[in-house]
Every structure is written in C-alpha cells, then in structure tokens.
C-alpha cells in the first residue's frame, strides 16, 4: 500500500516531534550501498530525510542478493548506487536522491563537496575507504556515523570533530599474515595450504608475482636466508613451467613440479624435520591410474573430497583456467587472472591444490565450502545484523540532528554476553591521534608558482613560528632537515594540487615542547599579484602536544561484555576501546605501576586508566 506523502508526514511528525523538521531539511551522504547500505537507505528514505546522496563503486553480484534487498536478479552487473536509488525512490517520492557510481576517494568528492552535507553515513567494508571518509569529515567538520558488521556482531560509532574520538583514534587490526617459510615449507594448518594455493601457486601460474601477496610476512627471512634462496629458485622453475601453458602435458608438469619434485627436495632437508613429520611427495602417474573412475557423483561442495577427487578437480580446473588464458591471449587481452572466491574455476583450483598439499604434509583436507570461507576471509554476512545496525545508525543520527551529541552512544550488537545490545559513552579525541589530534590550515595559493621553500620560510617559520626541525609529508616525505631537494620545486611539480593535504610534523628535540601535527589543505587559486604566489594565512597558535588522560565520563563502562571483539572482515573493524587504552599507555610511555585484577574482567591501572581484559 502506498501511503500519501501527507499521511507519511503526519505519522513522522507524531513520532519524531520537532526533529521531523531537521530530518526533512537534512542533506545526507551514504557511502556504500552493500549489506548495511541497502538497509540504511531504506531507513533514511522512510524516515523522510530530505536529500540523500549515495556513493558506491561496485556493481551488483549474484551473491549480494540474499541480503541486499534493494537489488534483484535483473540488476546483476548494474551499478549498486544507481539501482539502490531507483528502488528506494519508490518508498518515498518526497526524498531527493542522487546516485554516484564512483569511488569515494575520487578527487571530485573534495572537502567543499563534503561540507555541503549535514551528516555522513559510512556503510563500507574496508579500512582504507573508512579512513578516507573519516579524514574528509574531519576536514569538512561534518558529523559521521560509522558502522560495521561481522557475522552476528555490529557496531555504530558517532564521530564529531574535536568532540568525539575519530575513526583513527584507535589503531586497527591489520590483515593476518604468515611467515613465508610456514607457507612455503612447513605448513601445519589447512589455512597455510590455502594461502599457498591462493597467493603463491595460483599467482605464479595464472596471475601476478607472489611478492605482492599481503599474506606473506618476510620478517623472519633473515633466519631462513638459504631456504628463501631455494624457494626463489623454485619460483623461477615454476615460471618456466608456466610457459608450457596450453600444451597437453601442462597439468602433469605443474603437478610433478609442486607436489613431487619440490616436496622431495624439501623432505631431504633433515634439520627441518627433526621435530616434525617430513612431507610425502605425490605421484601424478599413480594418482592418475587410481582416479580412473572419475569424480563420484556425491562430490559436493560440503563434503571433504578424497585424494583422487582432489586430483581430478586439480587437473580439470587447471585445464579450464589454461583455456581462459589462451582465449584472452587470442583476443589480444591482458592474460592475468586473479583469485575470486565466487569464480568457480579459481576456487576449484585453489581448493584442490590446497588439499593435495595438505595431504602431503599430513594436514586434514577441507571441503570446498570451508576453503571458500577461509580463502575469501569470509565471515558470513547476516541480513538481520545489517538491519539492526542500520536502524541503530539512524537512532544515533537523530541525536546528532537534535544537537544532542552528548546523548549519542557507541553501540555494540553482539550474540555473546548477557545482552544483545550494549552501549558506552562516546570517548573524547585521543590527543596523540595522527588524524584528529591535529591543527588545520587552509592554504590558498597558485600551485604552479608557489615553491615549497617559500611555503616553509614564510608560512611555517615566519607566520606559524615553526623551528628548523620539521618534516612535511604529501603521501610520502617531501621535506625534512636532511632532505631539502624539493625546496625549489613548485607545489604542482611535487604533485600538490587543489584539494591536496600536507602534513607538517614538528621534529624538535625530545626535551622541547612539540606542536601537534598540522594538516594543510591546499586550495589552488590563480594569483594575479606578481609578487605573491599565495595568500598569507593569518597567524594561528598551533597547540602543543600533551598526553591527556581520557575524561572520567569516558571511563564509565555500561556493560560487562560490550561485544567489542567484533572485528575483521573489513566491516566490523572499529577497534576495541581496550586497544586504545593499551596504545594510550604505550604512546605516553606510561608503565602501569600497579595492576589490580577484578576477576578476569577489569584491570585498574593506578594512573586512572581502565582496561577491559
Ligand atoms: N572506496 C569506496 N567507494 C565507494 N564504495 C565503496 C568503496 N569501498 C567499498 N565500497 C562499497 O561498500 C559496500 C560495502 O558493502 P558490503 O560490506 O555488504 O560488501 P559487498 O561487497 O556488497 O559484499 P561481500 O563483500 O560480503 O561480498 C560495497 O557495496 C562496496 O562496493
Ligand atoms: Zn582521531
């Protein structure tokens, strides 16, 4: 049933009171139209937010449809932002919707554009984009509602410049990596074999080089120099095998190389197997004869395949992928493939290769279903979690729009613990945060004429009273006391253009007071004055860094289990506040001198910090 707009307004007015007017006048930005985004857009539209811009870079995939209910089968491969807008527009014709099929990091979404919004909602799935929006909202001074879900857990955080902590006030967990030797020589768990198949073997045969795999941690490399050298040699040999792609004996050559020859060499390294069972090579010919019966009809994704079934899937998927490479090559296209958990050919190859390797090392084989989860780092997305979280986002947005940010809470949704929903007060900004614990300066200049040297002399040293010990970053270091190569370069020649950010860091001696980092936002404007290529900014006091303990308010915890262990999968990577506490004490070099343990739950540190354990 379609409700008339006046009827809708009447109900909204009754339930929302004066807030209704603020909502109608609000212009919101929603970044991400995936799991949370679809639910959130429906809420925003039905609540009657006046204007909504939707940004999403992706197109709709079949696997999105179980929970991203604004999309149907007919929309597969169409841009999420546009389809979300079209579907949601039908829920409330009074809302003005604009869709952008684009990356939120595109330069045209600059600070000025962000400033045009009343409030921003993040419904993203990765750290990088979340960090970017956080930064832009701080620069534009627009409140941000950050949200994330992981399986049954969800979180909502309200971020407001200088009032609350920002997304980067706490460090975020980095994706898991494994020592390269564990992956290459001494796997002991299924995940080690899956990472090997996905990030090494697959890439060496069909994709880009293994050096780019983020899962490989080379930090232990020095201890294993000889082994690393051998592995490099093996990789070179594999490159030669790759050149045989398309020939009838390709599968046998690959198999014999990685599952026989390399393993035989490895098992010869007696020192390595003093405390472990040595690996057992497999033979292509004997498996080939054992596997004559073909795949059993019951070989489902959920079942753990036999060795012979893995062998057959390995050969078959290798053929399918080789054929794809040949087809691409014949069409004159790029011939690199990349692993995608939703691409059956790549998943079959990774699943079978991982299981063959597990067999060699005496590790339990896994079903294709389980391998898909592990290889794609998938924690199943739950529609209900997204729906509840999206609802919480709107509830928190109400408080922001009512100018009652002090009533806003950090909200956690969790299946563990006594209560599904727990909240805690918003924290004050972390004084040592590199993103929000900063001073800001708008710098208007002609980027083609302004030289880095004059910016330092006139703006930083004369006007802002910096000493000689500073460093300046623009993505990477462009100046410090020992690196003055760029002094004569124009901003433009250094890649600094309209909308660029520079970070100025005070590098004075440790016993001196340090200014907080200064974020300079560059605004490129042609300057007609021949004398001056920039507008001299007014003198402002750059605050000095100080370690400031969090306010008492922020130490009051509302629930026993706040569910703050949600993390990973990108969605739920809002960091636990306990990590923040740990970092705070590390940052300010405060060694807890006395710890009083209250059960296993709370550690009280005598300088006033509380840590949840
Ligand atoms: N930099 C970005 N700019 C714009 N949109 C982005 C950016 N990064 C991620 N997104 C979008 O954020 C949304 C996040 O949604 P969600 O977590 O449900 O992920 P998904 O890709 O739809 O699903 P899954 O990863 O579970 O297959 C996606 O639609 C994704 O395209
Ligand atoms: Zn911060």
UniProtKB/TrEMBL annotation:
Annotated positions binding Zn(2+): 166, 169, 433, 436
Domain Ubiquitin/SUMO-activating enzyme ubiquitin-like: 444-524
THIF-type NAD/FAD binding fold domain sequence ranges: 21-434
Active-site residues, Swiss-Prot/TrEMBL: 181
Protein name listed in UniProt: Ubiquitin-activating enzyme E1-like
SUPFAM superfamilies according to UniProt: Activating enzymes of the ubiquitin-like proteins
Family in the record: Belongs to the ubiquitin-activating E1 family.
Residue segments, region Disordered: 551-600
PANTHER family assigned to the protein according to its UniProt record, in alphabetical order: SUMO-ACTIVATING ENZYME SUBUNIT 2 (PTHR10953:SF5), UBIQUITIN-ACTIVATING ENZYME E1 (PTHR10953)
PROSITE patterns: UBIQUITIN_ACTIVAT_2
Pfam families attached to this UniProt entry: ThiF (PF00899), UAE_UbL (PF14732), UBA_E1_SCCH (PF10585)
Biased composition (Basic and acidic residues): 575-584
Xref: CDD domains: Uba2_SUMO (cd01489)
Tagged with keyword Translocase: no
Gene Ontology CC, one term: cytoplasm
Domain Ubiquitin-activating enzyme SCCH positions: 187-285, 334-372
Known partners and oligomeric status: Heterodimer.
Gene Ontology biological process terms, A to Z: protein sumoylation
Pathway the protein takes part in: Protein modification; protein sumoylation
